[in-house]
Amino acid sequence: MILNPVIPRTPWERAKWGVIDAWVVTRRDLTHWVRQPTQIIAGLMFPIVSVLLFGYVFGSAMNVPGGGNYREFLMPGMFGQAMMFGIGTTMTAVVTDKVLGITNRFRSMPMARSGVVVGRSLADMLNSVLDLVVLVLCGLIVGWTWHGGFGAMLAALGLLLLLRFAFIWIGIYVGLLLPNAESGAAAWGLLFPLSMIANTFVAPQMMPSWLGVIAEWNPLSATVGAARELFGNPGMGGVTWASQNPVLLAILWPVALIAIFLPLSVRRYRKLGR
């Protein structure tokens, strides 16, 4: 017997339909991670190794503007870099589904068009929370800590996850644009300079002036600077507007990116195969 689904007509019915479909896709992606835990382990190993490498191998040669422990300066940058590298994780998952024909199968079903991309974003957010928890524990082990209140610490983590949510939509959009997995590997390479030309490992004041300006206005720098301020970690300073208002920019940048790439991702998904 073939069941004909009832197509929603009212805005409320369409919204409910989209939420249900998004949760179905989220569960599907989480189930894949549970059955293939090596993907999660591999994703966690890079930031952990980076913490050990920069904290212990290069840390003795690094100077923090205004003084302070380099590992405390480093950890907010590592948190932010992990959120940015999530672009590659999302992009790879999206382009893989597209190449394998899974995206077309979703499109052939009576599913809300927004449900597929929203489900992808929710699954990646849950994965990002796990990444951040592991990195925080790793930071505590190597001597990092926060010096502000518990509420300020939660606010810093919230801004980091807000940045990750914005980067998810960039990853979804780019993944829908790429023709194959090989081109996705090339896109991964762009994440390294974008995360390095920021205040993640070195203060912009220590860079050439023109490069320091670019680094200060990097969305990653805004969130990392805000996290350092809320955590009470060293490295704050600078005379530019961007360096003195990191919390404000850490809100404005992600909101602007979401406003741009979320509708672009939904529109691109609807146009696939046309």
Automatic annotation (TrEMBL):
One matching Pfam family is: ABC2_membrane
Q: Which domain of life is it from?
A: Bacteria
Compartments, as annotated in UniProt: Cell membrane; Membrane
InterPro entries per record: ABC2_TM (IPR013525), ABC2_TM_bact-type (IPR047817), ABC_2_transport (IPR000412), Nod_factor_ABC_transporter (IPR051784)
Query: What sections of the protein cross the membrane?
Result: 40-58, 78-100, 121-146, 152-178, 185-203, 247-266
Nucleotide-binding is among the record's keywords: no
Q: Which UniProt keywords apply?
A: Antibiotic resistance, Cell membrane, Membrane, Transmembrane, Transmembrane helix, Transport
Would the keyword Repeat turn up in this protein's UniProt record?
A: no
Identify its membrane topology class: Multi-pass membrane protein
List residues of the ABC transmembrane type-2 domain. 38-272
First-listed, main subcellular location of the protein, grouped into a coarse class: membrane
PANTHER family, per database record: NODULATION PROTEIN J
Q: Which family is this sequence assigned to?
A: Belongs to the ABC-2 integral membrane protein family.
Q: What is this protein called?
A: Transport permease protein
